[in-house]
Amino acid sequence: MTKKLTSEFNTRTQPMRKHRIFNNWNVVTKGWYIACRSKDLGKDKVLSIDLNGQKLVLWRTKDGVACTDGFCPHMGVDLAIGKVVDEKLQCFFHHWQFDKEAKCVHIPCGEDPPKNLKFNSYATREKYGHIWVWPESQTDEEVLDIPGLENCDLIYSFDKTYERSCHYHITMINGIDPQHLRTVHNISIDMDIDIDETKSNHIEFTLSGKFPTATLQERMGKFLLGEEYSYSMKYADGCLAALTMLKGAKLFNRFTLPELKMIFAYSLIEEGRILVRPIFVNKRSTGLFAPFSNFLKLFMTKRFFKMLQGEDGMVYENIRFNSTSFLKLDAPVVKYIGYLNKLEDSIWSQTKSGE
């Protein structure tokens, strides 16, 4: 028996507010989405992927990674069973060949390609050990730089990909919900919130506050991390989130600690199922103790993530998020939803935003 979606319950007694983009399973915004790990696409290999409801194929050329729709525009054969010939993708069935712009450049029978071919190419990038795809043939946008790591030599590692039952727009709220820090994580800090909306498709929230001293846990936090606790969340295109922890932290209030950073990459599987890919990232240390320092930064990032993931995980399995009863304290969440609803939808959307 198919499990009912939470949106199918209580439709009359607790009606949900619908949004143009936010929490809309039919809309895929323009943004960077992970296709695969870089190591999974070798030379002369054709790789088929399912991404946000699209069947795509990827292969390598001397200029980078090519990505097109996954079915031959001639008779619809799965291009994954084709092969790479002189950096062109050759369909197995009739040996039509396509270049990285999805242009048909060769038909063995000698005829010209039909003018009504429906076949698209997509922009790609390689970063953080992954291949990323943008749902248009070209873009000036780059995969999100984690704040503070721009133009740095990076180290990174990955955690296991996992699924959630709610839309990723909901899980992304987690980092900017000041109430749940107290109620779920027992972090009783009155947070000041700074919001940066300099770039229209990005939004960054920085939360900071002084450690109280009412409990032993709070006093230990102040002793280990300094007077203040601060972190930031930066969102890009409604599908990427960069978390920076331990901003300005000082061990024993004396020694500056390195910031811990990670990125969450999201994609849709189907309504009621999303994929989350956590990537731990930091600046590469140099010098005699660099190997230990690099290991420690990524290890500690993973430890912090696992601690928070376990406490938050229960919330998202059956959540039926509604946006009709916000408090003043929920202002960051309201701001975030407004940001999402102004983003652009892509040709991967099942319906146009707002429909």
UniProtKB/TrEMBL annotation:
Taxonomy, superkingdom: Bacteria
InterPro entries linked: Cholesterol_7-desaturase, Rieske_2Fe-2S, Rieske_2Fe-2S_sf
GO molecular function, one term: oxidoreductase activity
Keywords recorded for this protein, A-Z: 2Fe-2S, Iron, Iron-sulfur, Metal-binding, Oxidoreductase
Pfam family, one: Rieske
Keyword Phosphoprotein: no
Domain called Rieske: residue spans: 33-133
PANTHER family for the chain: 3-KETOSTEROID-9-ALPHA-MONOOXYGENASE, OXYGENASE COMPONENT (PTHR21266:SF60), IRON-SULFUR DOMAIN CONTAINING PROTEIN (PTHR21266)
Stated name of the protein: Oxidase
